[in-house]
Amino acid sequence: MNKKGIFRGIIILTVLIIGGFFLFTSSNQLENGLEKNKTVMNVLENYMEESCVPTSCCHATSCINENLKPNCSNILCTMECKPGTMDCGAGNCKWNNGNCEVEWNE
């Protein structure tokens, strides 16, 4: 073998080693990224589940995310239990498949 052949062999071996290193670290980063995404999704789902509230201040019939809730500070509601509303424990807001919705009690 001449010097050019040895030099080419060293370069090829170096490229393979460096390529393998980057492939290994990239796959570890991908796995770590997937785990982080799963964690973020779990946190978001728990947050969303806990943040569903009635859409209206009085006699609500549906639910929305807490960040969109109406300002009820100057609202007075009647104390009656209106049928078809969540009044008097007839329903609760809950997170279901990406949406806030009413879980009606029977």
In short:
The chain has 106 residues and is an alpha+beta fold.
List keywords for this structure.
106 residues, alpha+beta, 4 strands, 45% helix, 1 helix, two-stranded antiparallel ribbon
Give the helices and strands, then pairings.
Layout: H1 3-50, E1 52-54, E2 63-65, E3 91-96, E4 99-104
Antiparallel strand pairs: 1-2, 3-4
Describe this structure in words.
The protein is α+β, with helices and mostly antiparallel strands and 106 residues long. It has one domain. It is 45% helix and 17% strand. The protein contains one helix and four strands, in the order αββββ. The longest helix is centred in the N-terminal third of the chain and has 48 residues. The radius of gyration is 29 Å and the shape is rod-shaped. The mean pLDDT is 79.
- Estimate the global geometry from the Cα principal axes: rod-shaped
Major sheet details: 2 strands, antiparallel
**Mean pLDDT, nearest integer?**
79
Poorly predicted tracts of residues: none
Helix count equals: 1
Radius of gyration from the alpha-carbon trace, in angstroms: 29 Å
Q: Which strand-content bin applies to the residues?
A: 15-25%
How many domain regions? 1
- Tally of DSSP β-strands: 4
The proportion of residues forming helix, as a percent range, comes to 40-55%
N- to C-terminal distance: 87 Å
Write down the secondary-structure element order: HEEEE
Main sheet: which strands, in order across?
1-2
